[in-house]
Design a protein that fits this description.
The complex is a heterodimer. Chain A is of the alpha+beta class. Chain A has a domain at about 60-160: Aromatic compound dioxygenase (Protocatechuate 3,4-Dioxygenase, subunit A, Sandwich), CATH 2.60.130. Chain A has one helix spanning about 10-30, and strands spanning about 60-70, 80-85, 100-105, 110-115, 125-130, 140, 150-160. Chain B is mostly helical. Chain B has one domain. Chain B has helices at about 1-10, 20-40, 50-80, 80-90, 95-115, 115-120, 120-145, 155-175. In chain B, α1 packs antiparallel against α2, α3 (about 50-80) packs across α4 (about 80-90) and α5 runs antiparallel to α7 (about 120-145). The longest helix of chain B has 29 residues, at about 50-80. Chain B is globular and about 55 Å long.
Chain lengths: ~160, ~180
Amino acid sequence: MSQRPIPRRRLLATAAAALTLGPVLSVPARAAGVAPTPTMRGGANNYLPGAPIVERIGGGGFWMTGTVRRAGDGAPLAGQRIQIWAHTTEGHERDPHSHGATLTDADGRFRLEMPQIVPAFGQAHGHLAYDSGDFETVFLRPVMPSPKDTTLHADFVLVPA
Amino acid sequence: MLGPLGLAATSPLLQWRQPVYIAAGFAGVLGLALMLLQPLLAAGLLPGLGPVRGRRVHRWIGGLLVASVVLHVLGLWITSPPDVIDALLFRSPTPFSVWGVLAMWLIFATAVLALVRRRLGPKLWRRLHTTLALFIVAGSALHALLIDGTMEVLSKWALSALVLAVTAKVIVDLRIWARRR
């Protein structure tokens, strides 16, 4: 497949316009930049509010990873509490011991070790929640590409409440 | 028929599930397996059963199918109420639940129609019942195939294909839509 090249003159004109208008437009343009993450269908199923912050959930062996950023400018959000639960080799989603929480680091990243997620209700999936009040609540339900995966990743982009 | 059930019983997923969840899963597998018998019985293709006794067994199995669907949904409901409520309201994120729920309602509709079949007349009853059966079989097979569950993959595809093929063959053989005297 061949891509139509951008005419050089138009490219230069666009670049020049961007340079001159850049400082004026960049603030609202950036504000619309990073879109907030919508809550996923079924994300809040079997949620138990107030999961404790833990070193790891159960015996571990599986990693839930992700990032938390602010909508608009995409700035990483440090110290945000993310709650995690799933059907694992050690328990059902509804079991309190299947739930745990962790905090994001200075770069807005989080990482929590937990037992291996196994398929339940037809899909190997995890649940994550941001529900601390400073930003609007978001529930995620990522699905593992393969049930043999030993890690699952989820990104949050939050809107101030 | 027993193959898929037996292979599902060896699923590694079972060790991480509670008895109610396991029972709910097996009720679903049993339902799909029973669907293989229904067209065979309707066409009198099972050896040792005459057409009259075949029809009687067909009716019994129909009742068993309704029961297995009820147990399937009830067991899943006890295991995880919000997931089943989402499925029943057609707002579940899983693509297979919509086919399962549709098949469930069609099975219930079939049971109701079967109870009032004498009022429908034979021609209308046959056509309605066959149409429902076709959609039930297709929906149930799709439901099962899209699920990552306790059924072993090869036997699941084999059973689904067999149920669909036998149902189609019997519908053609019995000439349900043919003009009759």
